[in-house]
Amino acid sequence: MTDPTPDRTSAPTLIGRSSSHFTRVARIFAAELGVAYAFQVVPDLRSVDAADYAGNPALRLPILRTGATTWFGALNICRELARRAPAQRRLVWPEHLTDALTANAQELAVQAMATEVALIMSQLAGTPKDDAQLAKPQKSLLNMLTWLDDNIHAAREALPQDRDLSYLEVCTFCLVTHLEFRSVLPTSGYRALTAFCDDFAQRASAQATAYRFDAP
């Protein structure tokens, strides 16, 4: 649903889960930007009812409801939160990444997040970890993490030095910490990514949005 003149005077409602890395991306942006919001939990990720996802036909989260307007997906939501921020911040969005290194890092961070979701949903469906159909996504995830570990330092160095926040760094932090939280795979061997996450975790926004399972 769209609205040419969305209401930005009242607090929006974020629909998602405290255990979701895509939801955490939005929550970190909200915290960094000083935007208040109500939080509504999606009770069951196995639901195939779009109503449980605030009408999102993709059956995915997060979703942001702002009066009569609904925003689907973390990136859309973060952009709307930036428009609602009480003060302008120096934000680095995916379209600002015009060199191959940073653009590829952004692509792989988001692809890895989506691949992890697919693996978790397979696990919830009772698919054995050694199922042949999971071999490719499992290998893909490992390949992407290795690439990100090899390149995260250089990618961060290539970002504008005067930035307050970048979508790339938030996504990468939420991805790596989520892998450990959901026990998808250990990440301690990815030293560069671990060092980055240890540094980013010192931010108040990261500390305020720690992963947890919402009460039923």
Structural summary, described in words:
- 34% of the residues are buried.
- The strands form two sheets. The protein has a four-stranded mixed sheet, with helices on one face. A two-stranded parallel sheet has the order 5-6.
- Strand 3 (63-66) and strand 4 (69-72) form a beta hairpin.
- It is α/β, with parallel strands linked by helices.
- The protein starts with 12 loop residues before the first strand and ends in a 9-residue tail after the last helix.
- It is built from seven helices and six strands, in the order E-H-E-E-E-H-E-H-H-E-H-H-H.
- The model has no long low-confidence stretch (mean pLDDT 94).
- It folds into two domains: 13-84, Glutaredoxin; 91-207, Glutathione S-transferase Yfyf (Class Pi), Chain A, domain 2.
User: Percent range for helical residues?
Assistant: 40-55%
Number of domains: 2
| Helix-strand topology string | EHEEEHEHHEHHH
- Give the strand order, joined by hyphens, for the main sheet: 2-1-3-4
Layout: helices, strands, pairs:
Blueprint: E1 13-16, H1 21-33, E2 38-41, E3 63-66, E4 69-72, H2 74-84, E5 91-92, H3 100-124, H4 135-158, E6 165-166, H5 167-181, H6 191-200, H7 204-207
Parallel strand pairs: 1-2, 5-6
Antiparallel strand pairs: 1-3, 3-4
Helix pairs in contact: 1-2, 1-5, 3-4, 3-5, 4-6, 5-6
